[in-house]
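**User:** Hello, beginner here. Are you able to go through the protein record under this note? It all follows right here:
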Amino acid sequence: MLEKQIENKLTKSVKKAGGIALKFVSPSFAGMPDRLVLLPDGVFAFVELKAPGKTPRPLQVSRHKMLRSLGFKVYVVDSVEQIGGMLHELLTT
């Protein structure tokens, strides 16, 4: 499965949950996660999408650590099976 296929499933699943999954681009700050997931009641998280079995690059790991230290949730998703669990966690916490 390609990363793009996982990304498409993510955007559809988030929409079905009543939210939006915005493509996140930060030209002056490389290594930021791919999507900003915005859900009802002000729930949000960053999502880094990867092809199955792939891992974030060192700069991405650094950005994830920085975001988490600021109190943001950051998920790395490399399979469609992870999407449901991620959304469940976000919507129930």
About this structure: Strands lie at 20-23, 35-39, 43-49, 74-77.
